[in-house]
Fold these 2 entries.
Entry 1:
Amino acid sequence: MAKILIIDDERAIRRALKEILEFEGYHVEEAENGKEGVEKATNALFDIIFCDIKMPLMDGIEVLDALMKENSETPVVMISGHGTVETAVQALKKGAFDFIEKPLDLNRILVTIRNAKERSALVEDRKQLKSTVKKFKGSSIIGQTEGILKIKEMIEKVAPSDARVLITGENGTGKELVARSLHDNSNRNKMPFVEVNCAAIPSELIESELFGHEKGAFTSAVKDKKGKFELASGGTLFLDEIGDMSASAQAKVLRALQENLIQRVGSEKDIKVDCRVIAATNKDLRKEIAEGRFREDLYHRLAVILIHVPTLNERKEDIPILANHFLNMVCEEQGIPAKSFDSEALSELKNINWTGNIRELRNIIERLIILCDAIITKEDVIRYANPGK
C-alpha cells in the first residue's frame, strides 16, 4: 500500500484529497503547514508527497528545497490555486515530479500517482542493479551465468598474483573487462593499466610502440620515446589481439618476458621493466602455432593462466541484467530521462543471434533508447534491433 503525505494549509483541501485517496486504497497522512510537512517527511518514508505552493511559515518552494535535500528520490507533486507557468517551471527545475492546479481533478491525481509509482519502481530497480554490479569487488563484469561466475572466481584467485594470463574469446565478448578486473583487484592497481591493440598498429611500428625508440632511430623519430613496457612498469600491460603481432615483435616480447629487459629501437642499452603482462586474442593460437604464425615458446610464456570468455549466445540468461545495465548507463551518459523494458522486450532480446556479442548488445540498447518511448516493448525490439534484416 502506497503511503502519501498531503501538505496544505487549507483543511478542506486536505480532507477532500485524503478521503479520495483512502477510498482508492492509499494510506494518507496530513500536515497543515510546510514546517510540519518537512518534519513528517524527515521522520518517515512516503511514496509520494502532495505540497501546496501558498502556505504560511514556509511556502511550497521552500518545502520542496528542504525535501530535495532530505530525500530527492521521493516524488513531490506541487499543487496550487494561484499557479502560473513561471511557478510551475520553477518547481519542476527544483526537482518536483509534477505540478497540478486547483481545483484538483481526480483522474489527473490518480494518473500522477501511478506515474510516480512507476518512476519509484525504476529508481529501485536501478539501485538493485548497481548493488548487483558492485558485488564482485568493483569488477565491471556483469552476469550470473555459470561461465561468468567461473571467470569471476578465477579473477579472485589469480588477480593478487603476478601470473601472466591469456584471455581468449570472440570479438566483443568483454576480454578487456577481464583484463581490467585482474588489474583492479591486484596489488598493482595503484599503478598504470596500459593497453596496446596489436591489431591496430602497423607491423613496422609495433616494436617502437612496445619498446620505445631513440631519437633518430628512423625518419620520424624526432625525439626519444618511452614504449608501453616502460610506461606500464609497476602496473599491468595488456596486449590485446596478440595473435596479430609480427614475428619480430614476438621475439622481443619473449625476451622481455624471460629477462624483464627491453631495448628501445635504435639503442643497445638494456632497460629493466617490471610489469605484469596480460594478453588476449580472438584467434586459436594453437592453430596459429601449427601454421607457423605464432611462436610456441611465447605462447607458453603468456598462457600461465588461461581464461576463456563465452559468447553472448552462450550466456543468454545474462541478457536482461546486461540490457538494464546498458539502459541505465546510456540514459545517464546522455542525460536522457530513465526508460525501462517490459518483460516481453527482454525475452525478445534473448531470441536474437548475437554475432557481435556484448558490443552489439550495447549498440542496440543505445538505438532503442534513442528511438523508443519510456517503456521499450517487444515490438520495438523486433523493429529496431535488426533494421537491415
Entry 2:
Amino acid sequence: MTKPTVESVWDYPRPPRVEPSTELVEVELGGRVVASTRTSWRVLETSHPPTYYLPRAAFAPGALRPATGRSWCEWKGQAGYFDLVADDVVASRAAWTYELPSPGFEVLAGAVAVMPGLVDRCTVDGEVVQPQAGGFYGGWITSRVVGPFKGGPGTTGW
C-alpha cells in the first residue's frame, strides 16, 4: 500500500482549481450517515484546505432542506444554502451549492458542499476531517494536507 502524497495548501492555485476525487467521502449527523459517495470534487485554493463538493444523489432522502440566504464567492458565484437534517437533528445552513457557477466551475453546478464543523463528523477514506478554523470557510483538513491554513485568528489578510 502506498502512502498518499502530502499536499501543501501553499502549492494550491489562485484562482482555485477543481479536481475530481474517488475517495470515500461521508457526512454524519444525528448518529447516522446522511451522505456517502466515491464521486466528488475538491476545490483547491491557496492557503485553504480542500472543500469537497458531493453530488446531490450522495445525500439520503430528506437530508437536504432548502435554507434562506445567499452569499457570493468571487470565483464560483452565488451560493444557496441547505439545512442538513437527520430525523430530529438539524444543522442550520450547514451545506451550500452553486446552481449556476461562474465559468470554469461549471462541474460544481448543483453539487453540495458541507461545513464540517456544523455536523457530527465528516470523513475522507475513513479519516475524520478537522474543520478549517474560523467558521467562515468550509475546508476539510486531513493528514493529506498541511498548512498553515487561512481562517484562524490573524489570517484575514492572507
